């Protein structure tokens, strides 16, 4: 039996300001959590709760491209609105402006009583460039020689001008180094032990972690990213993978602790094999954004084990808002798909209200935006439909769409699949295109009478359909652009 949970991401530092400039996580109104529980969210991800180094904000957060992003998101922003990246962590202690560790533990207990788990950030690849760990545990970071620093002062840096010690900034191999970070050395036993101990401690504070850029910790990725430094400093590659060791140790203490990987570069399957419960499915996001139903359908042919461990989203804090990048109607169709296929279903704070503005993570203030009543109503209906256990515990199967008459090619625009749980059935059909499309569908109706009722839960319509027609030629379906049915029968 598969399990297909849903998760809701909150930009914590910005979110709390809705309840007062100095609001703590303990002061969020009960009604907020109750509404999310009513929508059957299984997890809430509080993004950005950890302590950062305030001194690094002035030094690293006012580069030209960042300033442009701030101005695009929030007109007339002030310098004090820039609060630093939540992914450049000083230490894994709650940011004191948000509350205390007891506040987090109490919130976890409160959410658990509502059937919701608490997810927090784990950023394995790097810490803040000015982390206090440099003074007490410098051996966990990737050190370099002076020559390397002088040759490339953008990738490498000297934290203390009075000490001849040089380190690498954290980086993704396809982009320039992140100036506000320091790179962890994954070929250091002490670094791995430190990170594993952090995870073990977090089992008391939350119910799982979303692991930032998880693939950067893989041995081959780390080796290829830092090959020059590794060979020059004679760092010995380790035979075992960090993730397999760390996840195994944590799961031995707490089996239900959830590991979610932000992952790209077709390394998702490898991370799943190392123990991750779910991995980002950016490929699905890109295929949905492209608007080609066949591309989406091809992705759904993946092995069940992979599909069921994939996390599906159409927006998050790194992506443009779905309403902006997809458009209103297309974003609705995409939301229906990610809500009704196997795997983890991911939603971002503001998505359900149709917000349009992507907020840079360094910005601590959000712009005023009107909620879109049509999007609110749409998501309320969608969540009322998907709240049924069939979408979490049922068996999913993809159906073949058939042309409805010779020469018709619009059947290729239609996605169709079925859920079954006991005597319950759901049939989901989505026209994922910008033209009116038609198709026919054949599906199992064993035990049904010649004429039976099909109720469209999404559109509050009921139809009487012929069993003979479904068996012989297939159920005829016609849908407007980006429209869908979710039938119960």
Q: How would you describe what is shown here?
A:
With 489 residues, this protein is an alpha/beta fold. It has 2 domains: 6-128 and 187-389, TIM Barrel; 395-488, Golgi alpha-mannosidase II (Immunoglobulin-like, Sandwich). It contains 20 helices and 24 strands. The strands form 6 sheets. It has an 8-stranded parallel beta barrel with strand order 1-2-5-11-12-13-14-15. The protein has a 6-stranded antiparallel sheet with strand order 16-18-19-24-21-22. Strands 7-9-8 form a 3-stranded antiparallel sheet. A hairpin with a 2-residue loop joins strand 18 and strand 19 (424-431). The protein is elongated. The two termini are 22 Å apart. The model has no long low-confidence stretch (mean pLDDT 97).
Brief overview:
With 489 residues, this protein is α/β, with parallel strands linked by helices. It has 20 helices and 24 strands.
List keywords for this structure.
32% helix; 489 residues; TIM Barrel; 22% strand; 2 domains; eight-stranded parallel barrel; alpha/beta; six-stranded antiparallel sheet; Immunoglobulin-like
| Strands ordered across the widest β-sheet | 1-2-5-11-12-13-14-15
Major sheet details = 8 strands, parallel, barrel
Q: Report the top-level CATH class of the largest domain.
A: Alpha Beta
- Based on CA atoms alone, the radius of gyration comes out at 24 Å
What is the name of the CATH architecture of the largest domain?
Answer: Alpha-Beta Barrel
Domain module tally: 2
Summed up, the helix count is 20
Poorly predicted ranges (pLDDT <50, ≥5 residues)?
none
> Mean pLDDT across all residues, rounded?
97
Q: What would you call the shape?
A: elongated
